[in-house]
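Troubleshooting: if your tokenizer reports a length mismatch, compare against these two reference records.
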Amino acid sequence: MMPRTWPRSTASTTGRRGALRASRSVAVLTVALAGGALGWLPAGAQAPPPVLDVVEDVDFDRPEAWAMQYFGSVSTLSPLGPARSREPWSIDAALEVTQVPHLSAAERTVGFNGLKEEDLNRLPVLVRPRVTVGLPAKLALEIGYVPPVRVDGVEPNLFSVALERSLVEGERFSLGARVFGQSGDVEGDLTCSEEDAAIPPGAPGNEFGCEAASRDQSSLDHVGLHLGAGYELRGARGSTLLFGAGVVRHDLEFQVDAFTFGLHDRTLLRADGTTWAVNAGISIPAAERTQVALELWWSPLEVVRPPRTSAENDDLLHLRAVLRYRVR
């Protein structure tokens, strides 16, 4: 998704810039020494490429961090239904399909602090099975899991959990609170695709010197709080309008694992920060035990894209749907 990058701010990142330049100088010197040392190796032996192994804490509005929080927000386990009290130990099974919006070339240009376009349009939808179990005290536990199924070179592995409680249940109006979290990652050739590596390093189309498909890993961990309301429509056979708002605290990492210009890049990017979101939708009974829910989810995400020096909103707006079946 994002290779190693250079800091944007001035005074606050002078030390980091110096450290990064020093790291790069050491890496270049190591490459040169390694190349010189080849003459001392036994015939047929090859020296392993030097490893660049640094950690960068990037600002939350950097393009690289924006990309991570974008996909972290896409994968948030939203309610997709009104909060309601359930019979203890009742079980609902559901299948969620979430749209992953197509990003423009400008939005995909996030590597090297907004200099390198990355191949981020891999998954058009996110499919997640979900199970909800009713608990005593008007509580419900929901678990969701995106299994590690590789699609177009990308393999997600995301585990989500939420604890929900009904707060108000009137004749037509309901209100509930929900705490949720997610742990997991997405792996794939995100910084150096197979297409990039098929072009000679440094040639047009492979200016950043990819020598092989990368094996990068993006961790999309977060915790959050959501308040949701439902309003049942008259004469609509139980159809309920859904409204809600939530806040999410992200803990994001991107582990580069790429071979470029004779160097094994193992840079780790880290970012953390808070986003918020609002949602609106509708839940429609489809049969005696079955419901369908549709939801629009909007989250304003700030980003500073060079040559700009101030933040702008590059929002997430996408559609979510779920088919839910009451098992018992």
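Reference record two:
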Amino acid sequence: MLRNPDIRCVLMARGGYGAMRIAESVEWGAMRRDPKIFAGFSDATFLHLGFARHAGVRTLHGPNLHGFAGMRRGSVKRWVAWVTELMPPESIRSLNAPIRLAGGRAVARGPVLGGNLTLLDHAIGTGVMPSLRGSILFLEEVNEPPYKIDGMLTHLRLSRILVGIRGVALGDFYRCKPKPRRPELPLREVLGDYVRASRVPALAGIKAGHARRNLPFPLGARALLDARRGRIVFEQGLVS
């Protein structure tokens, strides 16, 4: 599909497991020579990272084919706009991020990189991890209790891949609750501890990830993270 010039978008059928297994066989150079849209989320994070590092292309974090059946009409409209228009209107490129977790400068600008926290954690030390310096880090997660999220964020910090990030944008952390009768720090406190330590603007509440609404969210595209207005606005499209 990456070699075929007639294919302009590769959409993951579903997430789950397996992207790491095929990463060594992906022909990254084919994407670099003929950029096309790669779309999907969750397990696809490993491939998003590889395309960012080896091909330098912008990709689309968003629903897999499996998730289209339950999408609202407005969400489908957003997805179609991203994959068909050179520069979608600002109403498409702007997403609400209503929860302010940390301050730093009120505004940050840079390419957005990241995806599912577990896959990002797995990518550390591998050949697919791009440099995050100068970027806005996007994270989302599902079904992981706060203590595991704490461990993964600690690994990211100790690996020093977070050095030089300009901002943090958090999507859904869906069903990330403590196990019954297990004393743990609340999720918001865990997330707050790490983003405050980074000393950059950090916003949360973006409808992107494993919850019911999973709005398309470009990766590798330059964006403005505006803590004053509680939103993130993408300044680049995807269509080459």
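Descriptive notes for reference record two:
- The chain is about 30% helix and 25% strand.
- The mean pLDDT is 95.
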